[in-house]
Structure formats: structure tokens, C-alpha cells
Design brief:
It is an enzyme of class 2 (transferase). This protein has 413 residues and is of the alpha/beta class. 37% of the residues lie in helices and 18% in strands. The protein binds pyridoxal-5'-phosphate.
Length: 413
């Protein structure tokens, strides 16, 4: 008899029978409002009919057309379709399977293109679970403990996490940029620094949006020193924040973006996008993989982009995001020290009476929400932030339904 390894930890007790739209249906016969969206993946909702249809049709003609052996049409179609949604200068794409692989692809491209060994990441960032990406992840030691030595060549600079420092956004941004300069003077010389790798909104790190002056400060330093600016859009891309890509809130031009999650409505597909002159500096044949750019996943991704556009999901994420953030803020009790977010990424940070992180109450709230039929996740260094990430198709009534359950949960705590 085999059993699932205890290495996997499950956030809720639910075993899913099937999903439809914003709901998951458990084998217990209950319906759950899913404000986890498979960790920000099922943006078009569970089993959107157009995505299902595209995948079904593709399965009947080609499942796996290994992309370093042959080329296939869904991959070519997706490459072409992405031109409609990517920033114009990011005109070359490479595909893999998971977010971690995409971040590794960006890392390799950055090192190969610049010939420089080091990268700077930003404190609280999450970039994945492979050894290279765990080495770049600083949102909690739980992602990197126990399998050292990690990859070398990674330096960590502050992110403007104003709430944590207890400072204004201005002061936190001044500090972050000043420390970045100090790191470039004391730890990794600019001519040895290949890239800054940063999330537009810290995801796993606690749903903390960056700001325009911070990202423009990174851009200015990147230009001055020939360093690449890599924006990890794995959680923030494809409409999640109320713009197609998270960095578009901050008037900043990235050199490389990573994409995954919302790209293919649940099929494992990821990628990077960069200007073709930059992509041409990658060593041919240095990236690839057996399953990258899977035909069914690519067909689902094309359908996903069609749905996002034709159903106005980016605008819906912006409007429903405002509704959700305002509702969560209005209902926050004294156990919640901060509520923040961007679009349909909304986090409530639980703190004790003395302002310390309160992971126990956050966990209790998340579990109680599941019992009341609302699926949520936690995040943050101390797992004391309860996050809401509904599908982008979420309706105003479903936001109200979630807010009503959340109010009940907070009342019962
Ligand atoms: C910003 C960011 N980067 C990278 C990853 C890693 O993606 P994956 O879990 O698909 O490897 C994640 C996953 O949550 C993420 O949110």
C-alpha cells in the first residue's frame, strides 16, 4: 500500500469532486466558494467551457509534440497570440512548465546575456521551490531550510515593506533604494550583477504591493549599471492585479518577465518574455525540457487569453478587487493590523494586541472560513496574512457572499 508523503501539507481538509466557475464541490457533498483559485491559477474559473473545449479538441489531435524535437501549432498560435497582450518590447518568448522553471530560465538568460554571476533579489520575495529559485526566495525559511548548500551568487536587498518597518511608504522606499546602492558598493559590484529579480506585488511574502518610485529606482540603477530588471509576474500576470501585468501599475519597463499560473487556467505552462535582441544572447540549446510548451496547455492558454479579453476580466479584476479590498477593510477587526492588496490579491495581516505577527489567529480564521464554505490561504513570513485570490470571473454577489462569510468568521474568533 502506498500513501501520500507527509512532505505535502494541505491548507484545507477538502477533497474535491469537481469545480465550476468560482466554486469547488467536495466529495463531502458541500459547495465551497473558492477564493484560492488554485493559488492564483484558475483565473477564468474552474473548467471554463471555452478552455475545456479548446483542451478537448487539442487532446483529440495532438497531446505531446516535444518542442525540441518538432514544432506544433498550439505553441505557434500561443506565441502569436501573446503579442496582443505582452508589452510591445517583450517580443520573444520561451516556454516551460512551472513558475520555478520560468524564474530559472530568466536567471540563466540574465547570466548568459550579461556574462555576470550574481543577482539581487528583494526581501520577502518568493520565486519557487527548485534549489536555484529557493535560493532566491526570502519569504520564509520554510522554503529553503534543510537542503543547503543553496545556490551562490544571490544577494538580498530590502523591499519597501512599509507596514513591517512601521514607516511611511516614502521612508521605506528611500531606505530600500539606499540599501540597494550600499549592496552594490559592498556585496556585489555592478559589473558582477546580472539582474534584479523582483515581484510587482510580494505574493507569498504577504501581499505587499511595490510602488512606482521603488520600481523606477530599480530601472534607473539597472540602466546605469547594465543590470537587467526581471519582474516575476507569475502570480501578478494575466489580469490578476486589475492590469494585464502587475508592473503596468508602476510605469516601469522590465527587461524580462516571467509568466505562469493564470496563463493557462490550470494547465502546467510557464514562460519568459524578453526583447528579441536580449533573447538572442541566450546560448542556443541551453534551455528546454521534455514537457515544456505542452500542446494541450498551449491550446488552453490561447483560449484563456480569448476569455480574459472577451469577458473583460482585467477590468472585472480591477472593479471587483476594489469592492473586495474596501469590504475587507471595512470589516477588519482589531485582530487585523493591516489590509492591503492590488486587484484581486487581497491580504489581511493578523497581529496581536502588541502588534506582533499572530499566525495562530490567521490559521484559525482560514480554517473557520473553510468550515463555513469559503476557501482561503495564508501567506507572509509568519503565515499570519490571510489572502483572498478569487478567479477573475468573480461576480459582485460572490464578493458579497465571501465578505459575509468572512464577517462571520471574524465575529467567531
Ligand atoms: C511570484 C512567484 N514566482 C514563482 C513561483 C513558483 O511557481 P511554481 O510553484 O509554479 O514553481 C510562484 C508560485 O507561487 C510565485 O508566486
Amino acid at each position: 500500500m502506498t500513501a501520500l508523503s507527509p512532505v505535502l501539507r494541505q491548507a484545507t481538509p477538502v477533497t474535491v469532486d469537481h469545480g465550476e466557475g468560482c466554486y469547488l464541490y467536495g466529495t463531502d457533498g458541500r459547495r465551497y466558494l473558492d477564493f484560492t483559485a488554485g493559488i492564483g491559477v484558475t483565473s477564468t474559473g474552474h473548467c471554463h467551457p471555452r478552455v475545456v473545449e479548446a483542451a478537448r479538441e487539442q487532446i483529440g489531435s495532438l497531446i505531446h509534440g516535444q518542442y525540441t524535437t518538432v514544432m506544433h501549432q498550439p505553441l505557434l498560435r500561443l506565441t502569436e497570440r501573446l503579442a496582443d497582450v505582452l508589452p510591445e518590447h517583450l517580443d520573444s518568448v520561451f516556454f516551460a512548465n512551472s513558475g520555478s522553471e520560468a524564474v530559472e530560465a530568466a536567471l540563466r538568460l540574465s547570466r548568459q546575456a550579461t556574462g555576470r554571476p550574481n543577482v539581487i533579489v528583494f526581501h520577502g520575495g518568493f520565486h519557487g521551490r527548485t534549489v536555484a529559485t529557493a535560493s532566491m526566495t526570502t519569504s520564509g525559511t520554510r522554503f529553503s531550510a534543510g537542503f543547503s548548500p543553496l545556490m551562490s551568487g544571490v544577494h538580498v536587498a530590502p523591499f519597501p515593506t512599509a507596514y513591517r518597518y512601521g514607516w511611511s511608504e516614502e521612508a521605506a522606499t528611500d531606505f530600500a533604494l539606499r540599501e540597494l546602492d550600499y549592496i552594490l558598493t559592498t556585496l556585489t559590484a555592478p559589473q558582477e550583477t546580472a539582474a534584479f529579480i523582483v515581484e510587482p506585488v510580494l505574493g507569498e511574502g504577504g501581499y505587499i504591493p511595490g510602488n512606482t518610485r521603488f520600481f523606477q529606482g530599480l530601472r534607473e540603477r539597472a540602466d546605469r549599471h547594465g543590470i537587467l530588471l526581471v519582474m516575476d509576474e507569475i502570480q501578478t500576470g494575466f489580469g490578476r492585479t486589475g492590469k494585464f501585468f502587475g508592473h503596468q501599475h508602476f510605469d516601469v519597463r522590465p527587461d524580462i518577465i516571467t509568466i505562469a499560473k493564470g496563463l493557462a487556467s490550470g494547465f502546467p505552462l510557464s514562460g519568459i518574455a524578453a526583447p528579441s535582441e536580449l533573447m538572442a544572447k541566450a546560448w542556443p540549446g541551453s534551455q528546454g525540457g521534455t514537457y515544456g510548451g505542452n500542446a494541450v496547455a498551449c491550446a488552453a492558454a490561447v483560449a484563456t487569453i480569448d476569455v480574459i479579453e472577451s469577458e473583460g476580466l482585467v477590468d472585472n479584476a480591477a472593479t471587483r478587487g476594489e469592492q473586495l479590498l474596501a469590504g475587507v477593510r471595512a470589516g477588519a477587526t482589531k485582530q487585523i493590523g493591516d489590509v492591503r492588496g492590488l486587484g484581486l490579491l487581497v491580504g489581511s495581516e493578523f497581529t496581536t494586541a502588541t502588534g506582533e505577527p499572530d499566525s495562530a489567529t490567521a490559521a484559525a480564521a482560514q480554517q473557520a472560513a473553510a468550515r463555513h464554505g469559503l476557501l482561503l490561504l495564508t501567506c507572509g513570513a509568519y503565515s499570519n496574512v490571510v489572502r483572498m485570490i478569487p478567479p477573475l470571473i468573480v461576480s459582485s454577489d460572490q464578493i458579497d457572499e465571501a465578505l459575509a462569510i468572512w464577517a462571520r468568521v471574524l465575529d467567531e474568533l
